[in-house]
Amino acid sequence: MLNIADDIIKIAETASRQAGEIILNKKGRSSFSEKGENNLVTEADYAAQEAIIKVISNQFPGHSIIAEENDLSANLDEPDLWIIDPLDGTNNYAHQIPHFSVSIAYARFGKVKAGVVFDPERGELFSAASGMGASLNGKTINVSKASSLQEAIVATGFYYDRGAKMRKTLSSIEELFEHNIHGIRRFGSAALDLCWVACGRFDAYFEYKLSVWDFAAGRLIVNEAGGCCTDQQGNPLTLSSPGIVASNGILHNYLLNIVSWDNEL
Predict the structure, then answer these.
(1) Which residue, 120, 126, 180, 260, shows the most beta carbons closer than 10 Å to its own?
(2) Distance CA 175, CA 67 (A)
(3) C-alpha distance across the termini of the chain, in Å
(4) What is the pLDDT of residues 66-86, one digit of tens each?
(5) Domains of the chain
(6) pLDDT (0 to 100) of residue 72
(7) CA dist 103 → 13, 67, 163, 191, 258 (Å)
(8) What is the helix (H) or strand (E) element at residue 86, kind and residue range?
(9) Residue 67: how many CB atoms within 10 A of its CB?
(10) Do 71 and 60 touch, CB atoms closer than 8 A?
């Protein structure tokens, strides 16, 4: 019989693939609206979320769920909690930019134990379970070996607010370029940004404001691939942390010295 980690991963992978199929089928035909300034939601978000919840609830009817597009809120320290982003990168999707993902995490008492991120455009499925490593389409992945910022590609993201967080992001990017990094990338899906750190495509990533469904699965995948994720001040990352700094571990303190920020930002 499969253990709980195997069961959880299997269900999460099944749900993510079903959601990915819905998202691709609706691409270019899914109307969208603004749920906040510069923050879009599409028919595909809702349909994908419904499919994910159905798969999980059928298998684990007593489990709690937090999902981006519904009032399915639960406490972050629930004994069995699923954290779902049915379409991470909705703004990309709405503009037919082929870079978005499905993110599903499972947590026990505030600790993420399993996570899956699926990129339906590339057919790439990232998975991790606590203490069991991380994989991409079944093959083990590891973070990069870059040992200096001069060797690094750094990813970032911008919160929807165009005020202080945007200005801080821009100033951090400027300082990173002063350290002669190879480049900055801003692709618009936090879950994939984290997975790309995990598999060594990016060497580091930071973002000043995220929701728990944006990073719950991806942070576990980074950790299980040998990387490091902290909050904005270098403290352990929790499900209630406001943002994230992720790296291959080697670069983490260098990155924090540049991009760290106050809780009040």
Answers:
(1) 126
(2) 36
(3) 48
(4) 998 775 667 899 999 999 999
(5) 4-140 (3.30.540.10), 149-259 (3.40.190.80)
(6) 60
(7) 10, 10, 28, 7, 28
(8) strand 81-88
(9) 22
(10) no
